[in-house]
């Protein structure tokens, strides 16, 4: 096992030697006197206070892990995870109590990473999440493979159910703690980890009368200056602009925080400073061999803001299928229907996921469109990608839609019940019969395999009907839809095919959001 | 072992069923009658000729592997590799003759991939390359790790030496063939593979009087139209514009070829066609666990064209160093010194290499600058990257140069002999003594370790001297240079540190280009 100290990127001694910067450890700033430009600091070991003048003050207190005001939330064995001591406390509890089971509350980045580690540690784990999905910043159908992967790893998922309180396990019971949920359930465990989010640590800023933003973070301008021009705020505590939507947001991620620090340093040292252009919310999480990543806006964000958008789904190999070891990536792309500007992408899979998200992150940064994705010239050798990379393919699908070259819909836009009842509509599955036998099909669909579709179309009479066409992932649906159209039929391809249908179905079958 | 047929992306039957397109196999087009808009085709099995009219004609004959007109080049056991039958012929030769050794001529993409496969097959391999480096499109110092990796895999490298001819191994000799080189050497082997490049297959186009470009490919416009507006050319046979430099070029890669095919289809079918924006030459090759990738212009291309540019080197972990398994990536970034526009990037390493090149490929496509790289918001979790991703870091280093915030030079810009002789110059190694003992230092350098540099600078008198500062990879050189500057000394950081020095040194020690 590696030394714990190797987790620390820097320490006080290095700051002194490298940068001639004195780091006062174990020292809490308790007050800011803005008029006098002084701070009061307290030594946390001996309580002694000291006053320090400043020309500029940079606030970087981060956020604090939320501990909800619920009955029993302070019981021994209930932990939050933010610092190395937090992690040590959990490890010590597991060892001392011989803990065999854990409930993690909250299915965001931290909750999932904690889950994976507890599973590796050998604990029987459950996840309780108030929302009907894990990873709240992502769209629900996108995270279905994450749900599957968690279940496959033995994690019990309790989605769409909030925690109502905690109790110590009754004397003689097998578990040390009991987690009560709003639906009336009880989940017993020897350890509870709360991972329900972070809140910007604005205590000091509020005491000093600094302006806060609409999301509860410290309000700053593009140079990270607060409402007091001598005071800056950076990192999780600062409220920033969403680069894609323009709305105020809190992005507690390390990349933007680093960038903000650099901007403030430039302002203070009189260099020509750049402006913080806002954050795209580019994020990634890995668990149990799966990678989930995104950049830009999600569909739910766009819906909440009432923005118009279009979307396409793609399920595609990370590299050429003829090279061994190709893994499928599920991609969802959101774009502006007027000019094709990329608004966001989410992807999940085992290999090459965050690479595609990174490329699209750069495209979004530069105001790129789906036409740019279509034209992207990316590294291709069969072990790395395809001559038409997933980024190209998702761009091509979207560009076909925008150019009105290909009618496309998605499962959530279809009312399957109404469609089935409507004699003017036909749902067509164009996969080959052995595939249907193996993975199933949409109940009301008729099977017209692509391999003989042209002959069947030559005999088909119903030119007044509308044909909704799907295959496994969308490619053959595309080919089939074109054959329908060329033969004079009205047809539309269902984006993402049966694979997307399954993910959508799973999502609909989950309990609704409370 | 997988079926060989799985290597084929499509076949005639699929084209017929899916697209209603008839593929005439084993049929060679032998003449184009442009006036009559007819082609003459010959059945290669029975020699029978047939004439076919066309409205539009698309030429996509690709290139042919070059077999140099050298003595003995047609001897049995000497192969080129372009098609699956070529590969089968090599395998058959190895089996039938019990071949134990091979010489590969040419160290480009194909040559290296062939080498890796022959080594895996158990053959003792040598590489003969006329240039003093493998992978000619790349800059020489960038491919040094590839040379190291090839040698480590047991490949004998003969760089800077062209082949002059081939002979059958004399009766009774251990090897079946002998490769003679221009320097007078003889390399014996049981198998020779020629991988010295491809040439556009323009025979038919020339016969038909179509205009060729300056590089010998078929000349086309942005819609891939040849000098005859009814005839298009796509793929390796077409000459295209270099997206970065604007010059004519041949890019025999699959990605651009795919894109070109789509453009032609749009033109012919009357859709609103896009324009081929040119090729960035984005490329990747993997061998023996190493990945080498690039996008945009190389330094040698920029020098050949007389363009002004600046460059920075970076040797950086692919992901956070505190997460196990981080691997170093060597990066070279070229950019415009006036506006910071990214001109090209080359990178080599074991993990995460082509991801960074893909991101920069998108940046180049969108006219991005080093400031955009600096600000890129990419996926970060410790197993995927760093809060400051390598793309950010190389952007920051370059932006520091452009903003005149940090004096930077590179080893090839320094005349070490003159610098050592000049009493006004000091070369300073700021690494700690144990590192120098372990990996060595530049002979004439004085050691002033960063850990005590501030104290040493306080005592240092020579304010008139110029200090050339380096560390292992550049980061501490940066910190040290800033300390020199703040203390009132004239100092400059040497990009890429000792790591780049070693790569530059290896390059200089190779035989010169013939």
UniProtKB/TrEMBL annotation, chains A, B:
A Pfam family per the record: Rhodanese
Protein's recorded name: Rhodanese domain-containing protein
Highest rank taxon of the organism: Eukaryota
Keyword annotations from UniProtKB, A to Z: FAD, Flavoprotein, Oxidoreductase, Redox-active center
Organism: Volvox carteri f. nagariensis
Alphabetized PROSITE patterns for the sequence: RHODANESE_3 (PS50206)
Cofactor(s) the protein requires to work: FAD
Phylogenetic placement of the source organism: Eukaryota, Viridiplantae, Chlorophyta, core chlorophytes, Chlorophyceae
InterPro entries: FAD-bd_OxRdtase, FAD/NAD-bd_sf, FAD/NAD-binding_dom, FAD/NAD-linked_Rdtase_dimer_sf, Pyr_nucl-diS_OxRdtase_dimer, Rhodanese-like_dom, Rhodanese-like_dom_sf
